[in-house]
Amino acid sequence: MAVAEETSLDPADWGEFRTLCHEMLDAALGYLETARARPVWRPVPEEVKAALAEPLPHAPQGASKVCADFRRLVLPYATGNTHPRFFGWVHGSGTPGGMLAELLAGAMNANLGGRDHGPVYVERQVVEWCRQLFGFPAEAGGLLVSGTSMATLIGLTVARNVKAGHDVRRLGLGSAAGSLVAYASSQAHSATAKALEILGLGSEALRSVPVDGGYRMDLDALARSIAEDRSSGLRPFCVVATAGTVNTGAIDDLAGIAAICRSEDLWLHVDGAFGALAILSEAHRPRLAGIEWADSLAFDFHKWLHVPYDAGCILVRRGELQRQAFSSRHEYLAGAARGLAGGDPWFCEYGPELSRGFRALKVWFTLKEHGLTKLGRKVDDNCRQAVTLAGRVRDHPRLELLAPVSLNIVCFRFTWPGATPEQLDRINREIVAELQERGIAAPSTTRLGGALAIRVNITNHRSRQTDMDTLVEALLAIGEELLSAATPAAAPVRQASV
Ligand SMILES: *Cc1c(COP(=O)(O)O)cnc(C)c1O
After folding, report:
1. pTM of the predicted protein model
2. Residues near ligand 1 with C-beta < 6 Å?
């Protein structure tokens, strides 16, 4: 009687698998090398969506078939953020080195929850570098996470636990529910409100502080709001300052907010998702003064450092407070003085996750491969491209700048004499959709002071000054096209050159 064969999931024929892998690696490298040659984006065709909706694959299809499906059904329909004219939202563009690190991390299949192994020392070193970069004290703690949303949740969890005045982990929110309040500017990212919701404080616990003409938090308004809340018996516990707002790239007065937090005994959390990386730029570093006073700092590697998704970081000024908020090691997770169970402290004690991947490798790889100086120059390049673009917008009668350019984001619109607000919103929304659907460029939109803005965010190491020209020329041509279609009588004379 035959014994059932104990086959593993490894390839039956390693040689054949190796050939397939080399082929796919070539395809991946070719894809990155020719990023500029493709349309920025193309919609996923209905037949492709239908082909992906397969029944549960009970039988093996084999790696070679899966690779073919990937190349046909997935790879051609990317977001487009590897393209030099991807300007939507805040997306990083990734690097070939980052891709290689992902592949190598996949080979190790490390679990960074804890224990004593090489990858743990890599993540520790990445956190240590970040600590030094942002001028945090030696006792700071930190953790690599999926992104700033998770980092903010962790930072605000520590803030809540420290400031609640009782043992929240054991007793729950109790009397703190409904009385703890936090502050952020009206331009703060929704990740902050979401964190407060998850923490059981509710989004109404977030005071939306007005901003000045540069979209920075109004500190007088902040001080007044804190005083009012105290006098009505509430308990202010935290201010969330933003270094690089998502709408316009504004940087709050971090030193000013830190001073208020100190005198009011409030936790200072800084959302520096992309803007904190301006610390790498000689020119822009001074504008982040005060970031070193943050009690917690959230930022992303996958935005302005171009590390492949996903990779963010939380730094906490007093690492012990972070550990107190999350540490819970039961007997099956006990440490040991010797062997694999050593390696104290374990990363799982600094956040909600136990099993954690090796995202530190692609960060370590990126920092070492390119070095901070070059990465900082790429930050400068993007800021300069934003200034160039803003200049072209100012100079053109059909374009109107809608916000000051602080860093790398330009908000503007196409306009014409006698346009109504509704017409402006509609045509600018259509211009963005056309730019995306024609594959020329991918800006996004936002609203500023009620007006729909075309929003160009440049966190892209492949972008060049000439890409700003291509964008402006295409955008003007599409704007004139739409305008003459909508209002034939008011149609301007089309320029033959576009
Ligand atoms: C992107 C962003 C976030 C959210 O970060 P994720 O990495 O997407 O979770 C928060 N704040 C700001 C200012 C951002 O730009």
Report:
1. 0.95
2. 90, 147-149, 189, 191, 242, 244, 246, 271, 273-274, 300, 312
262-300 pLDDT tens trace: 999 999 999 999 999 999 999 999 999 999 999 999 999
Q: Measured in angstroms, how far is the CA atom of residue 417 from the centroid of ligand 1?
A: 37
C-alpha 190 – ligand 1 centre gap (Å): 8
- Domains assigned to the chain: 18-52+61-95+371-498 (3.90.1150.170), 110-358 (3.40.640.10)
Q: From the CA of 461, how far away is ligand 1's center (Å)? A: 19
pLDDT, mean of residues 140-155: 98
SS (H, E, C) the chain: CCCCCCCCCCCCCHHHHHHHHHHHHHHHHHHHHCHHHCCCCCCCCHHHHHHHCCCCCCCCCCHHHHHHHHHHHHHHHCCCCCCCCEECCCCCCCCHHHHHHHHHHHHHCCCCCCCCCHHHHHHHHHHHHHHHHCCCCCCCEEEEECCHHHHHHHHHHHHHHHHCCCCHHHHCCHHHCCCEEEEEECCCCHHHHHHHHHCCCCHHHEEEECECCCCCECHHHHHHHHHHHHHCCCEEEEEEEEECCCCCCCECCHHHHHHHHHHHCCEEEEECCCHHHHHHCCCCHHHHCCHHHCCEEEEECCCCCCCCCCCEEEEECCHHHHHHHHCCCCHHHCCCCCCCCCCCCCHHHHCCCCCCCCCHHHHHHHHHHHHHHHHHHHHHHHHHHHHHHHHHHHHCCCEEECCCCCCCEEEEEECCCCCCHHHHHHHHHHHHHHHHHCCCCEEEEEEECCEEEEEEECCCCCCCHHHHHHHHHHHHHHHHHHHHHHCHHHCCCCCCCC
Residue with the nearest Cα to atom 5 of ligand 1?
148
pLDDT in tens, 103-112: 999 999 999 9
